[in-house]
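[step 3/7] fold_predict: job queued, chain A
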Amino acid sequence: MNNKYSKNSLAFIGESDGVRALRKIIPAVAISSSTVLITGESGTGKEIVARSLHIQSNRSDGNFVPINCAAIPKELLESELFGHKKGAFTGAITDKIGRFELAHGGSIFLDEIGDMSMDIQVKLLRVLQEKTIDPLGSVRTIPIDVRVIAATHRDLENEIKEGRFREDLYYRLNVIPLNTQPLRERASDVPMLLSHFSKIHVAPDQDPITFSPDFVRALQEYAWPGNVRELSNLIDRFSTLFAGQCLELGSLPASLLPRGLAAIQSARLAAGGSGEVRAPSPLAAVVDEADSGVSEVEKITMLSQALPILPPEGLSLKHRLAEIERDLISQALSRTNGNISQTARILNLQRTTLIEKIQKFGLRPS
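[step 4/7] structure written:
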């Protein structure tokens, strides 16, 4: 397992007090061989801290071996950690080297250790005490030289009180405690993170997306239950759907926003605080087709102009929306002197889709 990360590529993004403190302490902790316990909510970057500790240590030439203890069934976790010999159990058709042995001379990262079963906790405690492992089915004890870094989103002291985690193992692991803050507690870092992930997720041959000041403020108000991982995924989504654009909160369909952010959007629109609502890319609108047959594309088109007053006798909604769509395409064609590619670009439509609509409405490109 080669290490593909440089010392600089794993830096925590941000300038909040918590991030500054973490960046400052990592080099000091890295040169130690003591066991580290990283706590923090899911998505706050615990594995980045673990990799940073390894890369900046004197073990950086060795393997960094991660394993998610919550993702592997408990009946298989012992074999994954310590290995097994052929025939040790049904299905063991070959010898298997465990993660601890793979990490010899390097570091092992035991993620979500709070989800480890009690029987595996006992065996892990022995490994930490004896610095040896016993593969399943083997009569030979293997010495290991491994730096153990553990992480969990759980409150292990509470888990101890509830009888789900061994107190002696906790003290073995918690030699050097580190904590990663949730994103909601370092909202000042959001603008830097937006810039960082926009560059990472930029679409080929496009400029990174950007955000209006009001949108940035809304993103700083949002609670981010999924933390930095959620923010990264959201930027990935926007970079795919709105490549190269400057995004405004009021221009996005609520279906593309996390529920909490959609609530902020709704409140701001109701208060008139985010300005004119602009039509987003129709590419995003296919996400949420309405059962009535009126698509999100049509609903967004309706938002792009002032709504008409509904006459007493009613009107044909689909016909009215089609008129608005036809008018917008006609205006765009006029603005570009009939250039199909430029028209498709300013309407955020695929070229083939625009041609189909031009034919549908009987428009002329020039």
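[step 5/7] annotate
The chain has three domains: 17-181, 183-278, 289-366.
Residues 4-9, 274-307 have pLDDT under 50 and may be disordered.
exit 0
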